[in-house]
Amino acid sequence: MTIYINTLGIVFVSIGITLALFSEGYHAQAVVSKRQNTFDQISNILDHPLLDGSVTGISVRSAESGEILYEHNGNTRLRPASNMKLLTAAAALDQLGENYTFKTELMTDGCIRARILTGNLYLKGYGDPTLVEKDFNEMADALKDKGVKLIIGNIIADDSWYDKERYSKDLPWTDEMQYYGAQISAITAAPDDDYDSGTIVVKVRPGKKVNSPAVVSIFPRTKYVKVINSVKTVGQGRKRTLKIRREHGTNTITAEGTIPVGEKAAKSRVAIWEPTGYALELFTNALQKQGVKVLKRVKHGITPKNATVLVSHRSMPLSQLLVPFMKLSNNTHAETLVKEIGRTAKGEGNWENGLEVMERNLQTLGVDTGNMVIRDGSGVSHVSLLKANDITKLLFLCQTKTWFQTYLNSLPVAGASNRMVGGTLQKRMRNTSAAGNVKAKTGTISTVSSLSGYVSGKSGKKYIFSVLLNNVADEAAVKKVEDQIAILLSNQ
Fold first, then answer.
1. Is 480 noted as a catalytic residue in this protein?
2. What is the share, in percent, of the chain residues with pLDDT greater than 90?
3. The whole model's pTM is what?
4. Among the options 54, 82, 449, 466, which is catalytic?
5. C-beta separation of 274 from 188 below 8 A
6. 197-229: pLDDT as tens digits
7. Contact, 385 vs 78, CB < 8 A?
8. Residues contacting 290, CB < 8 A, separation 6+
9. Active-site residue among 329, 410, 450, 490?
10. 329 catalytic per annotation
11. pLDDT, tens only, 40-60
12. What residues does each domain of the chain span?
């Protein structure tokens, strides 16, 4: 009986082990099946008619292990658009550090006696892309506090911290007047806290009566820009037909078209020609407001080595600058950072040095740049090429860096109502499982759309993904394809 009972016990235990193994195997198979089903759905999404004739690169990795879970043309080089900024931000954080700040200095080769500065006053820029009108006012106020009421000398803008190349090599000429195509200078200015440096805001509001001229104004107010107003006020219900353009090589802005009476004002950001002079104009205006008189002329030049610092202004740290840079996809910030890492690492602030340092830093992170084509820092180039698998690898490796939380916080958040949280994803994927969950960089240039970042699934698993869509007929419409993939991953 004992043996029989033991035998039954052994049989019972054996059955239990068999059942347990069967259960584990079934569960594992279910997980694999679910994962396969997920990726089958991605493949189905890629059959969308909007992608007919396009080239698509997809990469999905485990955020924990780095394992590639799904790819479609993951090793095909494609134009990344503003997903290039993911590389620029990582390289800048690695090269400059989270606490890095840009300075702007007022210097002189003269001396102050009896409230008179005898000698030249130099406005020396070091690349700060966040200077706004109030910063120039504060610098002028600080100079006045030094006891300066009269300057017997020139006011000289020194932008020699960077080279004289204002545009990255592949910027389309049609983008020259667009805010995202603004010139890069070591001294520049932005109209507001979006920090679109090198631009000015043009505001058009209707006149009080039909057929009366519209009212066109600029901000900040400056004589550096001339505005020609050819906009007419039309009756209610008529179509608004505004066109604002800047003539090449000038700061003459022409506003044309119509605006219906009673409508809200229309705003447009226009890139100006030669931002150094723009910043200098704002500073001299600030001196005038403070009652500081200048006897001689305003011009460009180089600060002598024996000049002394009178006033020093510091920008926000890089950790904060990354928010408007990445959330709003600021091209001028990207190209400024490229020049800055070139200047700090190699002594000259130009694209050649900056891109070389950028690639070197990415290699140090563990990214193979040998198969990349990197022509700028913003992604406006149609020549730059990246692989989706390389983007997800970069995003995986960034998780090991001390600055990763800053990097992650700079990414747009799907469906977040606050503009400086949601950024370019503010109005996308609302009321879905991706809202507040997907943190990713968007990208758009003509015929290209992209989305790459991080997402947590409902199961708790975290994914890294990259979607590069090239040769598309409607880059705005295909964003729904990117959203579908991100939402699918967030549901896992």
1. no
2. 89
3. 0.91
4. 82
5. no
6. 999 999 999 999 999 999 999 999 999 999 999
7. yes
8. 137, 140, 141, 143, 144
9. 329
10. yes
11. 899 999 999 999 999 999 999
12. 41-99+319-490, 103-165+275-314, 199-271
